[in-house]
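Quick start: read one record
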Amino acid sequence: YLFKSHIKLHMIAIKIIATLLLLPLSLGFTTHSRLHRRQSNVEVLHIFQKKEGNKSPSYYMKNLPRPDPDNPDRFISNNFSSNDFYPPYISLLRNGPLPFLTRLTAPDKYQQAVFKYQFESGEQDLEEAQANMDAFFSSPDIWAEQKLREQRGEREVYKYAKPLDKERVVLTVIWGSMVLFAIGKIIWKGILHF
């Protein structure tokens, strides 16, 4: 009886770990078709608008990233490079693991998303463009709905690049440490010491 219950605990631990490891796949993190669908949802909504102001459109255009003449799917910037981006840990603290993992595993995709957002929205602030793309990679549907409602005038324009709240950062680090400790203990006690 004791042996059977011990095996059941191991099987439950294995299922929990497999679920946690496969969670990014179920969210569509690495599935190309889902990522393609996410991008096309935003393009269909026509969320982006060029900012209008007192300055001429040519002023905005020369300060923004622009399509690469050799490859129209890519964007280039004279003013910014990936070295100007804020560190990946801020993406983690601001919007969770998905944008953080995107930055680590596909840095070119992330950079192109930021430059494309700047070009299509007319956003001059690199940090704000980055924060918007972090929010997009974290939850594209919620981000797209927010942008659509902003465009319709149903909601105020949300600034994603707000300074991080120190209390929230401390609580996030404590909570993340507890979760990692629990997972590590399950692996150490449940699987490795069978």
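The first strand starts at residue 66 and ends at 67.
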